[in-house]
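Two proteins, back to back. First:
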Amino acid sequence: MNKLFIPPHIFLEMGSWRQPLLMVDRISNYQYGEKGFIQVIKHVTYNEPYIPGHFPDNPIMPGAIISEIFGQASEYLSFLTDICEIYQERYGISLRSLRDICSKIEDDDFLEVVRVRRAQVQGVLAAQNIKFKGIAYPGDTLEVTSQLAFSDNNGFKHYSVCAHIGKKEISKGTIINYREVK
């Protein structure tokens, strides 16, 4: 398991979601660049508000929730990429991995970049061609990867996403993200 860690108070500042819609528990890996990606973790528990009703006698994580995790992972990828680019431009320091980000995470300069950028960005997400091959049960740990596939001429970013429980792929597809800067 990766020991790199973004403290919870900073993790919350990076995303705009709060309970009960905060679906990412932890960012486990990030790589900046043309082949950049993010990996996130979601622990499925009986305490999730949707579990008792989906389904009462055989609880499983709804596919719509997995799609939401895909969207949140993709937005974290976009956001961290923004942060790396702004930090490089402003301070001349290249941040290319989760290790690099964690080395600066408590610095006032880094936190200022995070706060300013979060206040500037808003957007919408759409799921496309999401396929489900397996089920996530309470007690499972969902590992989600998002990688930028391409950006189109209209400003939409298309991400290839997949979810695994251990080595078993349970879902994959495309997330489309449109972001505006205020």
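And the second protein:
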Amino acid sequence: MLNTSLIEEAIVRIAVIAVTVGMVVAAYLPMPALAQSDDHGTHMSQAGLGQAYPATVNLSQDPNWLVYGFQRDGISYFQVNDLAGRVQLIVGNADGTFWILPAGETQVPVSLPGQPSPVPAKAVRSVVYRGSNFVLVRYSAGSGALWAIEGR
């Protein structure tokens, strides 16, 4: 005959394990305030702009760079960090108008749709981020580089 207290203890242990697993899984689900979307599937955060490693999704398509998306008051910001977490540039975008925020330790040259800069000769083009209405590209030539916002 089975001992009733052993069965009850086993049921309680299984219930505790199930609740614990549920809490762990729920902790990894995105929270609405930290995972806003630009309506094109890109997860945009509302906090952490300027941080080395903000608590948001890396959107970069290039393994050498980290790109983080933020959105506030109808304006989108895209922060580019190197792998050491140093901010390289922050792009602002509102209704197709782009600008660069004064961020990071050094000023990097950026070509904007309304203010294009010449691409260095023999530069290698690398797509760092591809969004719904623009592409962020890095043209590297020797020790220099030009970042470019290109329309789609």
